[in-house]
Amino acid sequence: MEEVALILLSLMLVTLKQCTVRLAQGFHNVAGEMDHSAYMAPEFFDAAITPPSWLATGRQSEEAVHSKGISKKIELVVVSPLLRTMQTTVGVFGGEGFDDGIKAAPLMTENAGESDHPAISSLNAPPFVAMELCRERLIETDEDTLWTVDVREANEEVAERGQKFLNWLWTREESEITVDS
């Protein structure tokens, strides 16, 4: 409990600005609305976002980030390695549509996660880091030996990982960081 109090005190001593961007709806959400048990189905574990969510992500990018100049201030984007989180974050904070004639690398390739979405450029986008510690649930290997259909990571384990993530975040030299998990 003392650690939690210290973390809260640390957060109060730092000036935080918040720009809230809603995580886009994934195919697992659509299935879960019809049958709650679908959230635990293996085929939805790393679900992509839906086509309407790509449209909403584009609107959020323009209305909440680019038009207000927020995109020019962000020095680092830290994102969970979940496909739906990366797609949402790249859609909101990424650069323009990718064109082979542009000398910048794609931030997201065309059809990533079978999304039928065009590539997104890294041009005029801040650096992105996919960070396992800020994930909502834990994957440690490609085989994902920790995940099973009927067992979730305990809240205590999520809290411990969150503490490790905050410790890592405090070491960063950037002052304008967005975290998307």
Automatic annotation (TrEMBL):
The lineage of its organism: Eukaryota, Viridiplantae, Streptophyta, Embryophyta, Tracheophyta. It comes from Salvia splendens. This is Uncharacterized protein. Keywords: Signal. GO terms for cellular component: cytoplasm. Residues 1-26 form the signal peptide. GO terms for molecular function: phosphatase activity.
